[in-house]
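## tool: complex_structure
## caller: assistant
## args:
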Amino acid sequence: MRHLKILEYALSALWRRKYKNLAIVLVYCFTIAVLASILFLTHALKTEATYLLADAPELIVQRLFAGRHDLIPLDYADQIGKIPGVAEVHPRFWGYYYDSLTEANFTLLETSSGHSPLTMLQGDLPSAPGECAIGAGVAKVRKIDIGDDLILIDSSNTGVSLEVTGVFSSRSDLLTNDLVILGREDLIEFFGFSTDLATDLAVRVSNPREVNTIAAKIKRQWPNTRPISRSEIIRTYAAVFNWRSGMMLSVFAAALVAFCILAWDKATGISVEEKREIGILKAVGWETSNILELKFWEGMAISLTSLLLGLLAAYVHVFFLGATLLTPVIKGWSVLFPTFHLTPFIDLYQILVIGFLTVPPYVASTLIPSWKAAITDPETAMRG
Amino acid sequence: MIKHRVFIIFTLMEALTLGLLLLLGQAQVSARRVNELPPLRAVVSNLQLTDLSLWTEARYTRNPSQTDLFTPFQDFPSALEHFPAGSIIAPSRRP
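## result:
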């Protein structure tokens, strides 16, 4: 009961300076919302990438020339296929296309026949020359749909008209937003691939545990190649979406510094009015422990309210609004950028980290200067 | 003595809302794992995709798993990284 009465007094004290405290709550809440948004977004993207790319090719073999990626001879595929443990080698043909009309970059990819129907595709994959399937981003930026023509300029500066037979659903934007899928012969002719070269090779391994061994064998036998395993692909995205790197770290650090300034401002001293208030409370019989409890409740009321509101705002921002405020930070110069339909993968550890990073420091920064005033002689405190 | 009751009820409502959102999120994760993620994985498997279609401004930002450390700086000697997405993408950790 005594604690509830001290809580009541603490809330009354906060209410006496309601505009100032409301401003503190808003800034505090905004800071936590920014911190939490970054953590939620990066964790959701990382988890989604890990899950989606679990079916990426087991091993990709590239050829390097003078340290740069070069096309790979097709007879490498025959020889790699003879390595024990290799089940299949599939040459991949793909490349980038700059569309001057929309100033966007597309990724052109070949597909061979015999695939099972894709639920995420409205229409069909190309099955005959002169057909293509496109991502939702390509369809939107070019304002075309199934049955329309997509006109691109090939490597000999000739216009190529492709009939759109399929458009990927916007739910698959994260994977297909900028894709243009052509038949293999169309793609080879479009880029002018030499008959004996491919972009890279996708290797399927019989025993997944032997991937690294086979990669080492390929590297040893063909030193000018670079094998990339599926685990490296997934590890890349774990690093990309790590909140401890890149621009995310900059935004995160800026928000954290803002919070530290707020806490420091509280910790460096209390106002004369507050000191007088503490002096009066001591004079009427309050114990030092009661005053510290009062200040504890004041700090806890503000920080707990701000923490919960900030987390709610971050959740709604990332998983209901698609992180619209962070999208301009992430988008960069990309003309085509997917709309996020993120799955709410939440790491409770991160929520606890935010809580421990924000609540105890603020409460401590409220208690410490108050403790100094609480142990001061009441008359001295009242005189200011 | 009404303020502390309002505060406690308000805090409990916030915590309850957050808890419900987290539970809803878990349900969405389970539903998505069953309904949406398998078709997306089928797209990855059929088309042999290796990267997400996020940053299309440069080839090394479009396919960060396929690029090497050299590519962002290959334009000329002492070239600096100049694409904004390059600031976001950390180098992959080598085994």
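## assistant note: Chain A touches chain B through 90 residues (CB under 8 Å). Chain A is about 55% helix and 20% strand. Handing back to user.
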